[in-house]
Input
Amino acid sequence: MTPASGRAGTLLLALLVLAGCAFPEIPTPRPRATPTPTAVPTPTPIPPSPTPTPVPTPDLGAIPDFAAGELVASRINGLRVRQRPGFDAAIATGLLPLDARLEIVMGPFVADGLGWYLVTDADPDEPQFEEGWVAAGAAPEPFLASTGEIADPSPFVGSLAGSGDAEEGPIEIGDGSHAIRWIAADPDGVDCRFAVSLQPAGGDPVPTIRATVGAGIDRGTLQPQTFDALGVRGPAFVTVASDCAWALVILRAADPNASPAPSAAPTPG
Output
């Protein structure tokens, strides 16, 4: 072997060795796709339950105090007359103007945070009505004010109002037919009891009215035939046993057999 062929063989061997030790091709890394975040829905807020509006407790000492048969005047323009006490009651007539004159029948009866009176129309001007309930307001700016007058004649013997037990008297119950009108309601809107007794001077109490009042407002009349059968005459005490808000009035009933007053004869011209 010649020196040249030996070097060629050595070079060929070296190339073969290098070829066998060549590193494999490293793949180019592919970029990873960034995952799209899934939107999380925002929860719908649940509104809080409404807090019941408490019914205001009226200051009974600030409610004007009127007696049955007393004449009063409206102190505001636009006072409403309703068919029963309460703001949701039907309206009995148009709005009363300032200084409209009214006659008290009974009250105050507490409803919707106000004291209410049952009144009759004592004003010749419009609007005219027979009777209805008006809110009395409260001091120092009441809706009603006394005129200092008592209706004459007046059928009313005595009136009471309250919330709970009460006693009043003596009330003079004379001859003739009498009746008792009353109204009652449970302040909590559930049910309550209303009982009235009359006690003549020197006598025992006579049960007069017994009623169980439900969730609404109850009204009633002890008719003359029932009242007269009790035999209570002269001075008597009225006792109320109740857990209701209530009002009542004792009145002389019109004689159904009485003849109407004759019309005045025309003046000769």
In short: Residues 3-20 form the longest helix (18 residues). The CA atoms of residues 77 and 98 lie 4 Å apart.
